[in-house]
Design brief:
It is a single chain. This protein has 344 residues and is of the alpha/beta class. The chain has a single domain, classed as Alpha-Beta Barrel (TIM Barrel). Helix content is 35%, strand content 13%. The strands form three sheets. Strands 1, 2, 3, 4 and 11 form a five-stranded mixed sheet that branches. Strand 5, helix 8 and strand 6 form a beta-alpha-beta unit. The radius of gyration is 21 Å and the shape is globular. The two termini are 18 Å apart. It binds calcium ion (CA).
Length: 344
């Protein structure tokens, strides 16, 4: 709807403003969360991918965080580094007995010698998404979590915007077995950079419920916290089926501010092939939990969706999610530019 500026319609204009403010009060505008940066266009988690996502209008930029051998948080999706770097060529003798290369076996100085690339399958050498940025072209590098915080805060200063961060604490149980407490290290860094409370532009996310609980109840994290929902069970025993029940969501509401479900937990394919919105978002909203599903991709549409816009309509208009992770932040930001959130 349009709010008229015509003075003879002052009353109508006030009514119109009232309507708009009521709609805004009903539910905030959904958030565009750049999944590993604008990873649909540039190699994931590189600073160029973050700069592009920033410029494309993302509200939050995601960081996946793992630790190096010297205990420094580094922005990488996996604890292994052989799917996004040339580590196998540069340090062939450093693989473990499972044939994989792990960030935690390398110092930051060593990690920074590596070239980062578009994600590939180390067995075949082929790109995971074959229409994306070509393998082996141009030059990209890994960086630390701190470097990325400085990068985003620097852009916020130079642009006057206030784009947020969305760090995921990766594999805390695995890090503990390797002798390192990743959550403490990440929280210390967040504190130093001013990400401390629920009004600061930060969401911390984790798949392991035991760690989400620990972040809130033991480590004293007071910012917004998102429990990610996987399929089946997490490595720490997190029961994702249970967490999606109302009893599970009530448990989560005691420590978290929201959930990060998979797309299929919010919209599933019906027997006939069409989409069906589940009641997960509605039940989460009743408990004041936000819902930020992962991952909207133009080049990986669920079978029930014939176009990206149809997918966006399903998630933002019909399911009513509060934000979503996307590899293509420009497309989601364009869609949401003229979007009014559905009234609850
Ligand atoms: Ca992630």
């Amino acid at each position: 709807m349009h709010c008229t500026l015509n003075p003879w319609r002052q009353v109508a204009g006030l009514l119109c403003l009232g309507f708009v403010s009521a709609a805004l009060a009903a539910r905030p505008h959904p958030l565009v969360i750049a999944h590993r940066g604008a990873s649909g266009y540039l190699p994931e988690h590189t600073l160029p991918a973050k700069a592009l996502a920033y410029a494309q209008g993302a509200d939050f930029l995601e960081q996946d965080v793992v630790l190096s051998r010297d205990g420094i948080p580094v922005v990488l999706h996996d604890v292994q580094i052989d799917t996004v770097t040339d580590v196998a060529r540069r340090f062939p003798e450093r693989k473990r007995t499972d044939g994989r290369f792990y960030a935690i076996d390398f110092t930051v100085a060593e990690l920074r010698q590596l070239e980062a690339t578009e994600r590939f399958d180390p067995k075949t050498g082929k790109a995971v998404f074959d229409r994306r940025f070509p393998l082996g072209r141009s030059t990209f590098h890994l960086h630390t979590f701190e470097q990325e915080l400085q990068f985003i805060q620097g852009l916020n200063r130079s642009t006057g915007r206030n784009v947020g961060i969305y760090p995921e604490i990766k594999a805390p149980a695995w890090h503990r077995r390797e002798g390192k407490d990743i959550s403490r290290i990440v929280l210390d860094m967040l504190w130093r950079y001013g990400y401390r409370t629920k009004t600061d532009p930060v969401f911390v996310q984790c798949f392991e419920y035991s760690e989400v609980r620990r972040l809130r109840l033991e480590l004293g994290y007071q910012g917004r916290l998102i429990q990610l929902l996987g399929s089946r069970r997490g490595v720490d025993g997190t029961d994702y089926e249970f967490l999606q029940t109302t009893a599970g969501l009530e448990l989560l509401a005691g420590v978290a501010d929201g959930i990060g479900p998979a797309l299929s937990q919010v919209v599933r394919a019906k027997a006939g092939g069409g989409p069906q919105v589940t009641d997960l978002v509605a039940r989460a909203h009743e408990l004041k939990l936000q819902v930020h599903p992962y991952t909207l991709r133009i080049d990986e549409l669920p079978a029930y969706a014939s176009s990206f816009d149809q997918l966006l309509n399903l998630f933002f208009r019909e399911a009513g999610v509060d934000g979503a992770f996307t590899d293509h932040p420009d497309r989601v930001a364009d869609f949401l530019a003229n979007f009014s959130p559905p009234r609850p």
